[in-house]
Amino acid sequence: MIDCDVHNDWSSSNVLLPYIDPTFRDYLLRGELPGARGSFPHAHRPWLHPEDFRRHDIKPTTDDEHYSFMREHLLDRYQHDVAILTGEEALEVSTLANPHYASALARAYNDWAVDTWLPRDDRFWMSLIVAPQDPQGAAAEIRRLGAHPRVVQVLTSHGSYRPYGDKFYEPIWEACHEMGLPWAVHLGGQGGINYQPIGGGPTTYYWETHALLLQPAMTHVASVIANGIFERYPNQKLLVIECGVTWLPSILWRLDANWRALRKETPWVKRLPSEYARDHIRMSTQPLEEAATKQQLWDVLRAMDGENMLMFASDYPHWDFDAPDDMPLPPTWMDKVMDANARQVYTKLPRTPVPWQLDAHKEPAL
User: Fold this and answer.
1) What is residue 358's predicted lDDT score, i.e. its pLDDT?
2) What whole-number distance in Å separates Cα of residue 128 and Cα of residue 93?
3) Distances in Å between the alpha carbon of 125 and those of 87, 91, 350?
4) What CATH number does domain 2-345 carry, 3.40.50.720, 3.10.310.30, 3.20.20.140, 3.40.50.10090?
5) Is the pLDDT of residue 235 over 50?
6) Would the CA dihedral through 305, 212, 52, 89 be positive or negative?
7) Higher pLDDT pick, 209 / 311
8) CB atoms within 10 A of CB 93
9) Rounded distance, CA 55 to CA 58, Å?
């Protein structure tokens, strides 16, 4: 089983002090950057765990405690083969106004994760976090660490200053292509220099906002296709993590219809947007929307070729964590969604999937 979204974080971002460029060490110690429209928090933060073992917030005091919880309540409990580490607060570098500080923090996090997380468990594989508001710095970071044998993807937040197909980000696409790494876009990164993530203006309630946070992901999908990224980089993959799933068929239907009518505007887009999506875009299962009936959900997922496009993600340790033994998917899809699809995307992983089964005595709940 491959879990594509497992959050590893620190008890305090002061763990980055030995790794950060000395130029920015004082910024990190003070937890602020004068004149910036965003900051990088370094205080202890709440940890939200799956409901079946603790509902209240947990605040690990050490990284060892965090790993211990993860091993017991995720890796061993659900028999993970691979956990793709996706950071936590480090994703918020995208909100900082100073792009040089943002890249310095990303580099420090990546070195810290390589040194302190990968040695803890052979099941850990790593996302390389970069600061997209500094495309040249991000590209340099991808080339610096992208060849590491356990770095499997480049990761940014879906909160951004511009849509990710914009030519502003071309250095990042070039570096991803050069290093053979997919670009993963993960929910988060709102605030600071990034635009309001909700179309039409700020919302009033948290649950309302949370339901609408898929909107930036739609924009990135449309932008990457419209700007011809997959024509220039035919082996490139875009991964959309923790942004929902069932919106994809409808946006692709709209993109297909508008491309047919207006394609002279973008002559470099030579195929239907839905065809690019089928070949180049993959989605994490978490959060998987809950329809009135399982059949309704399956019909929508089939419309987006979910059997081949979805990759399992738990989103550990957040409150809306999805357990791998309770995935409401067609039983015939499980081997691909839980394992094989991810192995095709993360090319550094061993390429031999095994039939998915939670354990020898319990069939997965479908």
Assistant:
1) 58
2) 13
3) 11, 17, 12
4) 3.20.20.140
5) yes
6) positive
7) 311
8) 31
9) 9
